[in-house]
Hints:
single chain; Rossmann fold
Amino acid sequence: MNPSGQLAGKVCVVTGGAGSIGLASARLFVAEGACVMLADLDADALRLAARELGDERADFLVTDVRDSSQVRELFERTTQRFGAIDVIFSNAGTVGPIAALAEYPEEEFDRVLAVHVRGAFLCCKHGIARMRDGGSVIITSSVVGVRGDPGAYAYITAKHAQVGLMRSVAKEAAARSIRVNTIHPGPVANAFQQRVESSLSEVMQRDAGEFFDQIIPLGRHARPQEIARSVLYLASEQSSFVTGSLLMVDGGMTA
């Protein structure tokens, strides 16, 4: 344990913990002295991640963030293993289809909103009740959480809705000095973005990855580790007077 780290002695929960941004953030949390509970749907990936981080500092629980009882169990298990919670990184997400409005599948719209919005809501509902005063909640939104584009109706709607949830929870949680913020990555060089770009490339009839690199002022996709460093900022005392805010980590894409 790093006794002088930015998160020394802190307890963190990371949903979507087996994915690139979740795991990169968990690595930084542990390096800065925290204990981490990882949640995801992929048991094998979670097991490998916890082993990498160190069994004495990390644990995991397969969790569907759409299910209230499973999310409640996640936070109960965390407090049983490590104690009261200091940081919640609500990072679980899923890709939605790209389609014209008239053809957009309603069941997919509901599924995507359930993961992103209901999932973040349940993390706040069950997690904040088990947090120490002065903690931090970070919700992964997206660059599309502040803009609109045709076709990605579920994903973009969900990412906007997370901002409304964050702002509402931030007002209530402030009474306990708990900070609540959203982080808004642009395109990231990871498997999640590759799935998004694969669908977009078919619609656009061009390479979506190259297109994004052309419209991002910094000229490239982010690395997961770069997003993780911004998550660490929001998790740590470096952001002690930041709440109700949107942190854009998009290479200038929305400038």
